[in-house]
Each structure stands twice: as structure tokens, then as C-alpha cells.
Amino acid sequence: MRDATPEQTPETVHLADYAPVPVTVTHLDVSFQLDPKATRVSSRLTCKRQGPGEMVLNGEGLKTLSVTLDGVPLDADRHTLGDRTLTLHGAPDEFLLETVVEIAPADNKALSGLYMSNGMYCTQCEAEGFRRITWMLDRPDVMATYDVAIDSDLPVLLSNGNERAAGVWHDPWPKPTYLFALVAGDLVATSDSFTTMEGKDVALNVWVRPGDEDRTAYALDALKRSMAWDEEVYGRAYDLSVFNIVAVDDFNMGAMENKGLNVFNSRYVLASPETATDADYANIERIVAHEYFHNWTGNRITCRDWFQLCLKEGLTVFRDEQFSQDQRGYAVQRIGDVMNLRARQFREDAGPLAHPVRPESFVEINNFYTATVYEKGAEVIGMLRTLIGAEAWDQGIALYFERHDGEACTIEDWLAVFEEAAERDLTQFKLWYSQAGTPRVRVTEHFSDGLYRIDLAQSVPPTPGQPDKQPMVIPLAFGLLDREGNESRPTEVRELTTAGDSLTFDLAEKPVLSILRGFSAPVILEFDRPDADRLTLLAHDTDAFCRWEAGRVLAKDRLMRAISEDAEFDAGWLDAVATLAQDDNAEPAFRALALALPSEDDLAQSLHEAGIVPDPERIHLTRRAAQMAVAERLANALPDLRAANATPGAYSPAAEDAGKRALSAGLLKLQTMRDGGAAARRVYDTADNMTDRMAAFACLLDVGDPDVAAQFEADWSHDRLVMDKWFMAQVAHATPVDAVGVAERLTKRADFDPSNPNRFRAVIGGLTAGNPAGFHRADGSGYAFVTDWLLRLDPSNPQTAARMSTAFDSWRRYDADRQALVREQLDRMAAADPSRDLAEMVARMRAA
Ligand code: PHE
Ligand code: ZN
Questions:
Q1: Angle between the 781-793 and 816-831 helix axes, to the nearest 10 degrees?
Q2: What does residue 689 show for φ and ψ, rounded to 5 degrees?
Q3: With bands split at pLDDT 50, 70 and 90, how would you rate the model's confidence at 10?
Q4: Ligand 1 geometric centre to CA of 255 (Å)
Q5: Parallel, antiparallel, or unpaired for β 261-265 and 242-248?
Q6: Ligand 1: does its nearest atom lie under 6 Å from the Cβ of 290?
């Protein structure tokens, strides 16, 4: 039995131990003779000494056939060939190192390195996958140019850079190993072209399996819009003559920004109105943009070491969020991004897996592709821009591109350009990178004798390894409204830099404070205030985020009191919800967001923070009762409201129609609570697009319609992406009592292939994330079922097993019986000799 905390594990890597390599590699010549069971990889590395020390190359699972230095086979005393390292003793200052290895891509189910998916070869090298292909310095501060030759009978042979001959590629841009890619298969392209602002013609291709080519148009369109946007907003142009995107069915993550050859999980490429929902379209647009934007923020300027991951990821998420705001409208996009941040990052920050935006140690780097590094990393950049202002931001980022192009950088390099541009010391701001945990800001108001005072107090909770925290610099955007709801003071930003501070204003009457406008900092606001103020904000605030937030706080307050004290849902709140739902002056997408109640997980966390032990079943039932109360309040208005938000004519994925469909879906859910599914059945039978069909499908599952699952399957069993939705929806919409049984039954089907991460996530994630009351059943059956599947997946795909294990990270919220049941499963995983990936996650969660 392995029982190690991260601190005790010998393989822990520390930021403080960073040292540059003594010998670097400036160029790679690699040739591949592809074969499923015995692919031969011959590589020649151009090596150059930079300092004293031995060269240690990385390799994993390689069958090494030969090693030569400057053409001469290496004697035993000049090298040591270990399990995962190849050490050269006394290498000269400049030399060529040649190795020949053999690997078996068909046996690679980890989906890291070179593997096969439906007969196609593809690679995934971030973070440390290249070492599973050949011997190399597999770390991001070693940047080399590449020549790649692919020998195979397959018709399409792709790698990074520009193509010189069939299957022969040259990448002139020095890059780290993690950006290497190779794809070979029977693929078809949808093609287009783009002329850059520098006048360069770029061929664009989206490669898919034959039969999928009618679903590529939207990804290609999103790519062209991304290219134009990065030129317009950041002055960044593309730098090769071809940009390839490939869709692959078996992929651990969303997509990968390999230089000139982005590889995508097919669910984030393929879309048609009949098969993809509005949410799918929005994700495709965002992820295509994200990977494209990496060409500058990640590829041209990369990370010195993996501790700096947020340097590329936080910045690139920030950029893709800006892009989506421009494409789809600021307010709704921002609210959606905040909801996502709170659901995933705040949860992470509140539990045993909390870590800083820039972690200081890790066992397995793949465990740190987290909401904290990505989404909180993006929020930190947004705060930086708010604090220094748009002008200094523009100057600083221009300086960053100019100064660091072609380099592998750190957060210190990043902050230095802004210190220069803004002439501001960012020492305190840097705490956002090193202190984990979500800061809390307590707000109290005082009014007397014409003086209005706001007292602010901040605190950062303890997190693993960080018991005490220093005060952060927190930008607080705020404005004031008068009692009638007119804005009396427009938005301004004040900085809270100490544990406590006050703002004062001379005013004739007490105003209504609108604070944390636009969610100006990733903090939790603690602000006890009269309902009347919240209702004023909900009806009138000019800041869409604060307007939505007022409604959210009201709803959460009602739900929490109903859960803990059996309180009734009062007419005042229901009237406010109904008014907003019917307010034709507000965008439909905004109204849809305002109508949605806080999630069960959100409520569980909030109850826990209020000192109440959450009961998942009770949360589930109370939330449904609240939905019923809203449905009753809107009652007869529902059919007309839905009709008013119909989207007749051909389906368009654009934001305006998508917003109407989102509102209609929310209304249909309410109507289903009253009519037992009659309206949903009509929508299901007549829908001409997957968005409406899925909305109706979910409603029909909620009311236990006996036929709809079989009908859906009969229509779509041939389509793997649509069937993922079918698998997931059935688990997510099962009653809590049935959920584990439904999930278990689905895993017994022939088309449940656990080695496909999308399918695995559909069923297991459908339970853990989609059906919290089912997952947390008091008998522990959900915990045992999920653990069984994690342990089955772990030997072949540790990355996805480790990632899915985060379902257990909230276990300390619950009652003693549930905690004992979870601990039993965590112990079981620890005792099962898990992968390094899963072992690290379990150790961190058990330590809580
Ligand atoms: N770098 C990828 C992205 O952010 C994510 C990724 C990480 C993909 C590791 C695969 C493996 O877009
Ligand atoms: Zn990224």
C-alpha cells in the first residue's frame, strides 16, 4: 500500500528548485515509420552546451534500439540508460545525438504521447507526453526548430509548420516539445484561406473523419473571426502559411494549441443545427479562439517551467473571454463566466485541492490544469487591467510581445512589463499568484446626518499549506443609486489594500450601493442588507452583473431559509422574479439567467459556509419546490411568454436567437411542472434543432416519460456525440433514488466504452456533477460506484481518472456518516496502488 502525502513523496517538484539545463537542444530531426504495434522513431538532436553538468534526457516506455553521438555508438561508460532517463557523461560542447526507439501507439490508452483513435494516429504532448515518443529534454524552456518526416500509407500526414513534401514538415519557429504534434489518417478537410494584416496568405483546414465534413463550417468561421480579432485588438498576426485543426474522438481535454496543428476533442469542432446545442456552438467558438490565441500567448512566448502555466493559460482564457464578449455581448458573457468561475474555481478554492494560481510544488503536473490556474488566472489579469487602466494595459502587453517574443518566461517577466508601463509597484498585487483561497470582503453601511459610510474588511481563509494570509489588493468597482433606482454616482474603482478601510460620501439620503460591478475581483462579498435594496438593484441597476447578482442573492437567501427553517417562498420575491421574466426591455438571454435558480452544489457550499450541514436530498427537493412556486406564480403567462420568444425560420447559432431559446427552455421547464410534460412533448416531437430537442428531452426525463429515451436512441444511435448527451441526460435527470442504478445500467451497454473520455464523463460525470443528490445518496452507493469506475480507468488513463476524482473534493461539507463513507472510498483508492496522478489527488483529499 502506498500512503504518501505530496510533501513526503520523493518525486515532488518544487518551483524553488528550478535550474536551466546544462546542455540544450536547438534543432530536432525526427522521422516516424508508423505502425500500430511497432512505430520506429529516429531522432537527431542538435545539442549545445550552456554550462557545466550532465545532460539528462527524458523518456518513458521507450524500447531503445540505438544511441549514437556524432555518428558513433555510445560506449557503456559514456551514458546511463535508465527507466525514465538517459544520462550522457562528459558530452562535448556541440554534438549530434541520435536515437532510434520503438513504441506501440495502438496500446496507448492514456491518450498522452503517440496514440490511435479510430484508426488515426495522433499525439498529445502537453505537459510531458513527448517523452513517451522519443528521448528528449522534455521541458518548456528548451526551444528548438523541427524537421519531421512521416512514413505511412495513410493519405493525410500532418505535423507542425509548413509542408515541404508529402509527409515532410519544417517548423521554423523554435518551440518546446509540448507543442509538437503529428497526425496521420484517412481524413477530409474543409478549407478556406485568410490574408493576414501583414499580407500573408494562410491556408486554413479543418480535418475530420469522412462523413463529418458537413459539421465543420462553424469551427472554420470561428477560426477566421479569431484571426481577425487578434489582429484588431492585440495587433497579433499569424506566422505560418498553413493552420490546421484536426478533430479526434478520443481526447482527454478540450483541445490543444500545437504550433500550426491544433488538435481538438471532436465535440468542440463538429456542429450542425440538428446535432449541436447553442451551448456546443458557444464552446466551439470559445475554444477555437482559445487555441488560436495561444499562438502568441503560449507558443511564441511560452512558459519557463510548468509552475508558470497560468502565464499562458490565464492570459489566453482572459483573451478568449474578451473575444466572446465582443462576439456575443458583454453582460451575458460576463455573467456566464462568473457562474462558471464560482461553480468550479470557488469550489476548488474552498476545499482540500485549493492551490495558488502559480503553484509552488506538484507531483504530477497534469493535476494542475485546473479552474484556479485557468479561470482564476484570467480573473487576476482582468484585475490587473482594472488597476492600471486600459492605456497602461495596452502599453504593457505590447511591451510583453516585443520584449519576450521567442522566450520562455515567468510571472516575474510578465509583471515587470506592467510595472514599467504603469509606473506602479505590483508587489502586493503579486499575492494573487501565490496566496490560495477566495478572499472575503465584508461590507457594512452606515448613514446618519448626511454622511454615508461604507466599511470594508477583507480576509483570506487558510488553505492547505497556507495557514496565514496577507491582505490583498482588491479592486472594487461600485456606483450608487437613489431610492427610486436612478444612478446618482456612476461606476468608479477603489482599491482595498488593507485588512479594513472605509469610504465616505456626503449625501442627503441613504443611497443603494451597487458594489463589485462587473465582478471586479474574484471575491466573496458578505453584505447583509435590506431586501428593499436588492429589489431596487434587481429592477434598476445599470450594471448588468450587479442586477443579476441581486436576484441571485435574493433567490439564494430564500432557498437557504426554506432548506434550514422551512420558510415559505414569499410573494415579494416571486413577484420580482416574475416581473423580470416578463420584462421585454431586458435581453432574453439575461432573463434566462435571472430565472435560473442557484445550483444544488452552490447551495450545498453556501449552507456549509453558513455553518449548516447540507442535506443533498433536501436541497434537491427544496429547489424543485422553489421552481414550482415560480411556475405557479407565472402560471398562465407561460405559453404566451414562450410564444413571444420563439425563433421561427432557419436555425441560427447567433447570440440573439440562442438567448431566446435559453429563455424558452427555462420557461418550458416551469411549464412542465404544471402540465406534466404536455408542452415538452410537443416541442420534442416538432423540434428542428438539438437545442430545443435537448431542452424538451430533459423535461420529459424529469417527469418520467416512459418512451422518450428509447425514441431518442432510435433517432440518434448512429451519432457518438449526440449519444453522449443521451447518456448524460438520463443520469442527470434521474431521481436521486434511481440515479446510481441508471448510471450502472448505462455502463453495461455495449456502446459504453470507458476508454473514450467523452463517454466516461457523460455517465460518471452525469452522476457526480449532474445529479448531486444521487451521487451523495446516504447509503454511499454513489461513492462506491464512482470509485469502482475510477479504479477501472486509472491503469489505462490516469489523467482522466485523476481529473474525475475531484468529485470527492467537497466531502468535508457533509455529515459524519457521509464523510465516513467517502473516507472509505478514498482509502480504497489509496490502497489500490493507483497511478501517480490519482495517488496525488487522493492524498491531497485525504489530508483534508
Ligand atoms: N493547453 C490546452 C489548452 O489550454 C489544454 C491541454 C492541457 C490539453 C493538457 C491537453 C493536455 O487549450
Ligand atoms: Zn489553453
A1: 20
A2: -145, 160
A3: low
A4: 6
A5: parallel
A6: yes
Q: How far is CA 527 from its chain centroid?
A: 29
374 alpha carbon – ligand 2 mean position (Å): 8
In tens, the pLDDT along 613-630 reads 999 999 999 999 999 999
How is residue 93 written as a grid cell? 560542447
Instruction: State which amino acid sits at residue 746.
Output: L
The tens digit of pLDDT for each residue in 283-310 reads 999 999 999 999 999 999 999 999 999 9
CB of 313 closer than 6 A to ligand 1?
Answer: yes
The residue annotated as part of the active site, out of 126, 128, 257, 291, is 291
Ligand 1 pocket test: pick from 111, 117, 126 the residue with the most ligand atoms within 8 Å of its Cβ: 126
Hey, whose CA ends up nearest to atom 2 of ligand 1? 256
Check if 128 has its Cβ closer than 6 Å to any atom of ligand 1.
no
Apex 194 CA angle, 190 and 198, nearest 5: 160
**What number is the average pLDDT over the span 163-187?**
98
- At 104, list the grid cell: 506501440
Contact of 702 with 628, CB cutoff 8 Å: no
Cα–ligand 2 centroid distance for 113 (angstroms): 18
364 is catalytic: no
- Strands 201-208 and 242-248: what pairing? parallel
What atom in ligand 1 is closest to the CA of residue 369?
A: 7
- List strands edge to edge, sheet with 182-185: 113-117, 120-124, 182-185, 156-159
695 within 8 A of 664, measured Cβ to Cβ: yes
Judged by its nearest atom, the ligand closest to the C-alpha of residue 318 is 2
pLDDT at 270 over 70: yes
Instruction: For residues 317 and 334, give the distance between their C-alpha atoms in angstroms, rounded to a whole number.
Output: 13
- Those residues whose C-beta lies under 8 Å from the C-beta of residue 11, and which sit 6 or more positions away, are 363, 836
User: What is the Å distance from ligand 2's center to 337 Cα?
Assistant: 16
Q: Express each pLDDT in 401-416 by its tens digit.
A: 999 999 999 999 999 9
Instruction: Specify the pLDDT at position 848.
Output: 83
| Ligand 1 touching residue 521 (CB < 6 A) | no
Ligand 2 mean position to 399 CA, how many Å?
22
Mean pLDDT computed over 309-323: 99
pLDDT at 538 over 70: yes
Q: Convert the pLDDT of each residue in 120-145 to its tens digit.
A: 999 999 999 999 999 999 999 999 99
Ligand closest in space to the Cα of 252: 1
pLDDT in tens, 199-245: 999 999 999 999 999 999 999 999 999 999 999 999 999 999 999 99
For the record, the C-alpha cell of 745 comes out as: 445500467
- CA of 320, nearest ligand number: 2
Whether the CB of 124 sits within 6 Å of ligand 1: yes
Percent of the chain with pLDDT over 70: 99
